[in-house]
Write a structure and sequence with these properties.
homodimer; alpha/beta; 6-stranded parallel sheet; 12 strands; about 45% helix; DNA-binding
Amino acid sequence: MANLKALADHLGLSQATVSRALNGYETVNADTRKRVEAAARQLNYRPNTAARRLATGRANAVGIVMPAEDGRLVDPHFADFLAGLTRTLAARDIDIVMTASPRETSIATYRRFASTGKVDGFVISFPKRNDPRIEDLLDLAFPFVVHGQCGATRPYSYYDIDNEGAFARATELLCQLGHQRIGVLNGEPDAMFTVQRRSGIARARRSFGLPEDPALTVEGPMTEEAGFREMSRMLSLPLPPTAILCSSMILALGAQRAIREAGLGIGRDVSVISHDDGLSSLKTENFSVPLTVTRAPIRQAGTRIAGMLTDLIDGRGVQTHTAPVDLIVRGSTAPPPK
Amino acid sequence: MANLKALADHLGLSQATVSRALNGYETVNADTRKRVEAAARQLNYRPNTAARRLATGRANAVGIVMPAEDGRLVDPHFADFLAGLTRTLAARDIDIVMTASPRETSIATYRRFASTGKVDGFVISFPKRNDPRIEDLLDLAFPFVVHGQCGATRPYSYYDIDNEGAFARATELLCQLGHQRIGVLNGEPDAMFTVQRRSGIARARRSFGLPEDPALTVEGPMTEEAGFREMSRMLSLPLPPTAILCSSMILALGAQRAIREAGLGIGRDVSVISHDDGLSSLKTENFSVPLTVTRAPIRQAGTRIAGMLTDLIDGRGVQTHTAPVDLIVRGSTAPPPK
DNA sequence: GACGTTGCTGAAAGCGCTTTCTATCTTATC
DNA sequence: GATAAGATAGAAAGCGCTTTCAGCAACGTC
């Protein structure tokens, strides 16, 4: 394994010149650079990462801390997000280093990663409302970008989608079609996107003079099982919903099963609108009845956040971005049955 | 940000002693150690990772290189696998560093990661038959564990599940129930698990004297869409299958839709067996008709591979493990209709 | 011919740890 | 009381790179 010294000796040059040649400094003679590059290739030289980090103080890596709660569900969307993130960062030669930590101790984990120089910044996933991680990282003045929002008192970088607007429009659509009893299958109550969607729905309801209906609103885990259970329950109510809003395709899958098993038809008896993160393996347009959705590809979030974070690390200031969400109307929405 | 020197000065000790105290060497006085530990906590000292790596030559990190093909689908199972892996490694204070690379250049990426000292070992995912990565890493004599197998000429560490046996047993079950025309929805033809399952099915077929049926066997992408398309095609054949074997739950989801849209009933008209990786968000027991499955939780693979890899890095030799696969019989399998 | 310039390269000082080797002080041993 | 052994701590040499500062030609300029 050739190191810089070996390469320099081989070339009869100093380590300084070789280092400069390889790192694209202007002050090195063109011929010398050529020679150095050729020799580096020939000796298969690769600069040691730890040494370089130690000398430059930069890790060229960003961190992700996954919640390690054992009972917790692993979001299948995460793979798609990660794909977008990793590809974009890889193109800039930045690694992503991942670890897991229980939520209670995650702040300590972030601090350790920051203060040991393992990473130059973080991507914060699954933010909760008033997430303590954000305030802490702001105190540390360490770069990070949040995937979602969390309502901090100071400015911070985030990429979010217009959850509020999307679910307001979805609700409006249902209202315009004449629905009065609209069920909601939302995410965990303290997840920020749940809060945003809740408020979008409420806004639309108000503008149509539709009261809240607690019995038809559920906030909890986003599994197929939960979707099925809660939808079944709602359908057995004396006044069942004629439409349902789902916060994820997985919930919609469960709702679909409940509707079907109740002997009802999607779009005919019950309208369904789901949020769609644009997963590649399972598409909402391919449901038995193609789903009307609010759509925002989650992979784009990964791509964009990668850019925002490298900008931030390079000192280019806080950015925020709220991506628009498309409302795509398909066969699962129709006026309520008479 | 306190460093070792500052801490040593503060204590009036040498860096050497402080370092030893903090790293659990026996040759340091018990009182001294206490003092050092207290001061370290007080000054919030954390050893710099890069410096430590440079000094010890160990990265305390393992690498994962994701295939970066843009058209490629991101496997939702990957999130579950990663969860198991990351948690186990985090408990041992080992980071996982991830990057993405196109398949053609992935070998170069592995080499770069290995020779720059970024990681101490690799987890190889999605192995193909005779995967060139394995031979290359063996040549480099760099530690790695494969998730799956790939048929190299030299011994290497892997964790696999008994794909061959599982699909043999699944096929046998169908044969015993009296099925003669068994369709197969398998994965990409060059993925190793596809090969293994193919051969398990063939073995069971032979033992029941059942000929191969190319028109009823499909190998390709594991998406809901593909499952639907191919199952629909098979059902429109003059002699449609009375049973279908699916290599993933996502394919089964598509097959289910096709069967339903053909006006047929799962378990009644068409038996379905799927492989089940035990994803937490969508469970095969919760299909409208609970699915008979070959089951092997993919998260366990992550957990176990983490252990195998750290063992390997610590010089504890090559291990191989083939996990058994349960065959869980539920309502989706029955004798063929008369 | 003295004097800035410009272009290129080398010496050497870190970056923050670990670890070997050495030094000192105690204590046990005869 | 001399000596060996044991316990503890420090000095210093690296680990492999980057980067500052200095140096040396060669060159044009007055």
